[in-house]
Amino acid sequence: GALAALGAELVVKPAVGSGARGARRGAAHDPKLGAHLGALVAAGDALVQPYVASVAGRGETSLVFAGDSFSHAVRKVPRTGDFRVQAEHGGSVVVHRPTADELRVARAALRTAPGTRTHARVDLVATDDGPAVMELELVEPELFLGTDPGAPARFAAAFLAEAGRGSRGGAGPPAAPRRAR
Question: Of 76, 3, 77, nearest to 40 (Cα)?
Fold first, then answer.
């Protein structure tokens, strides 16, 4: 059916979540995977992604940006036999120096997102055609700031710059409504 058009093997998960909660991997034609997707959709939005085999061995690469400036990168590696890269599932994180192709793809992904941002994380996977975007995280609790000693200062500067833009009438939070007198 429609799921098989995305690939033979898929990962389905809630659109909003963390720690791979609710994520399942399975064959596109597996009725159990379809039922799980139905339950996710009944509760809210869901994501359906093709399973990329390189995740099992190499993991996912996360490039973290402070504003639009690259800050640092990590590679999230699943434990043997799993596809989930999160620590709560046995995954590990290693510091990563991104390739020129990874930076190019991540920056191209950022250009697709409207507006300004104080931070972003671009998750990439390795494919036969080069790096591919798995997710573009614009509201993200895990930025791996502890993996790079300079990262907290870069993010503080990005947040202060965004706050300054807001006080000068640029992009920032809307002004509080005024009371009629």
Answer: 3
Please name the amino acid found at residue 96: H
**Which of 114, 117, 135 shows the shortest CA–CA distance to 125?**
135
Could you report the per-residue pLDDT of 121-178, keeping only the tens digit for each? 999 999 999 999 988 988 866 788 888 999 989 888 888 888 777 654 444 444 444 4
Tell me the pLDDT of the chain averaged across its residues.
Answer: 84
**Using CA atoms, how far apart are residues 98 and 32, in angstroms rounded to an integer?**
37
The Cα 115–Cα 180 span in angstroms is 32
DSSP class of residue 175? P
Residue type, 28: A
Phi/psi of residue 91, nearest 5 degrees = -75, 165
For 68-114, the pLDDT digits (tens) are: 899 999 999 988 888 778 878 778 899 999 999 999 999 999 999 98
Phi, psi of 141, deg, nearest 5: -80, -25
Tell me the one-letter amino acid at 113.
A
CB distance 55 to 83 below 8 Å: yes
pTM above threshold 0.85: no
